[in-house]
Structures are given as C-alpha cells and as structure tokens.
Amino acid sequence: MTQLSIVKWVEKLLSGCEGTANHTDDIIVHGSDELQYDKRLENVLQILKDNEYLITLKIPDRRSFEYSSFETLKIRLSNLKTLGYYNPVGRTQIIADAFPVGLGAVLVQIDRHGPRIIGFGNKSITDCEKRYCQTEKEALALVWAVEHFKIYLLGKEVELISDHKPLETIYGNRSKPCARIKRWVLRLQTYKYKVVYRSAKENIAYPISFDNENYINAIVEYSRPIAVPLVEI
C-alpha cells in the first residue's frame, strides 16, 4: 500500500469526523474546549480501532538534532576548507538534481584537500517543464547545469553527478532516447563529459533545487489531502 493510497484511505475513514483533519501520516483533532476535544478524539480513536489502524502515540523529538545539524551546516558552508577558487586544471564535477518546481546544481572541484564548492545555481521550471516525467526533469537538470556553468567547462573534462541511475544510459553512446532528450544530448556535444550515478543521500544539489515559496506551493498543490481545506493550511 503506497503512502498516497494510505492518505486517501484515512481521508475516507475520517470524512464523517467533525473537527478532524489528516496530512500525510498525521491526524489532527481539535475542539473549542477540552470536553469537545476529548469527545472528538475518542470518536477518532474508536474508528481507527474498529478498522485495525495502528497509530504511534510517542513521537521522538527531532528538533534539537535538526537545529544542531543546521548550525553545523552553516559553519561548514562558510569554512574555507569547504569553499574554493576555480582551478583551470583541477578535477571538475557538476552535481545536479531536479524537483517538481525547480532545478539545482553545484560546481565542485577536487584537490589534494578533498572536494571544494566553487559555485551554486538553481532555477524555477516552467509550467510545461513541470509536466515532464521525473526522468526528463533529471535529464534537463544536467543540461541546464552544464550550460549554467559553461564558462568553467569549455575545453575540459567534467563529471556530471546525478542521483537518477537511468541518466548513465540515456547520456551514453548507445542511447536511443526520445526526441526531446535527444535534443538535449545534442546540446551537450560541445562538452567532454561523463555521467556518474551517486545515491540521493550524497546529492548536495537537492536542497537548492527549490526555493522556499515554490516548495511550499508544491506541497500545497501536490500533497494536500482533500480533507484539509486550503484556507486551513
């Protein structure tokens, strides 16, 4: 059972419960006073019990971990050991990623001290591009990233890093992609590149493939359950 089907099932299950809403795997119960709240909560728990739906009452507090991680990230991003100046003869990588509302890329060079970030880039995608399948979005992310950083890439070899495994084949020598991707392949023929797969956990371009406003709009547009009106969000 997929996450989306579970959400829809819970929506249907709680459709008759007043003062109740669900979002992804969370169920929200509210009331005007404690008595009304307790009554509505008992009703929801009884419905869940009757339908053999398991709930988690103890939720771990991740806020302290998230806060410390965010502070560590800020320190590392401003550290000279993380950032660097462009070296014309250095080993160069572009790490790219695609999101439902945008594309992100990071230009990285590796020296004797390890990888150093040279530059960041991101852009929103058009309404037409939002209708691309995920493979097409990921393929577009690589093309856009190369052209965005083209001043650093002309005349030298570059590794294109993606967390989308099919791109290794799509941008390979024996690939026979669709017409749209074929045009993108032609646009990359100016450059010397090799597509390399890297797992999503190691993809540092993911957070910058969306901006705050568009990301929130995407959640509202694609993840909002029917049971939660837009005005409540």
TrEMBL record:
It comes from the Eukaryota. It holds the Pfam family RT_RNaseH. Keywords: Endonuclease, Hydrolase, Nuclease, Nucleotidyltransferase, RNA-directed DNA polymerase, Transferase. Residues 91-191 form the Reverse transcriptase RNase H-like domain. Transmembrane segments: none annotated. The keyword Nuclease applies. GO terms for molecular function: endonuclease activity; hydrolase activity; RNA-directed DNA polymerase activity. PANTHER family: INTEGRASE CATALYTIC DOMAIN-CONTAINING PROTEIN, PROTEIN CBG26694. This is Reverse transcriptase RNase H-like domain-containing protein. It comes from Pieris macdunnoughi. The lineage of its organism: Eukaryota, Metazoa, Ecdysozoa, Arthropoda, Hexapoda.
